[in-house]
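EI: anyone free to look at a 147-residue chain?
SC: sure, send it
EI:
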Amino acid sequence: MAPATGRVTAPSTLNPSKETMSHFTTIKTQIKDVAALEAACKELSLPLLRNTEARGYAGQTRRGDFVIQLAGPYDIAVNQQPDGTFGLTTDWWQGHVAQQVGHNFGKLLQLYGVHKATAEARKKGFSVLRQPQRNGAIKLVLLGGAA
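SC: here you go
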């Protein structure tokens, strides 16, 4: 995963003539499969909405091809990048997002990987056994498959 792209300025919704610091940060990811992302969101009990606005600090919003709706005051915008992968953009202020999806989306990306790997293994005829580890990792054991 590449580092965050940094902060950008955006016109203020309160006073259009002034600029305010945006709290939104985009992290480059290797998300390519929206169905696997949707499965990860479902496991975390988070709705994945299509074509809507993600909430951020002080009423700022960010349009998303998809938006992961969080219980706290902020959401995650999911937008397709020029290379076809999806980037995740959110407002990390005060840890609201990290509480639900992990630091730098760690828990969300872990579950995305689990669902993507499971789907690919099943396409090849494997059964998949999921084993949570004490350290928080998830081990996938593939059984059977095409000879």
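EI: Strands lie at 9-11, 19-21, 24-31, 48-55, 61-68, 76-80, 86-91, 126-132, 138-144.
SC: 👍
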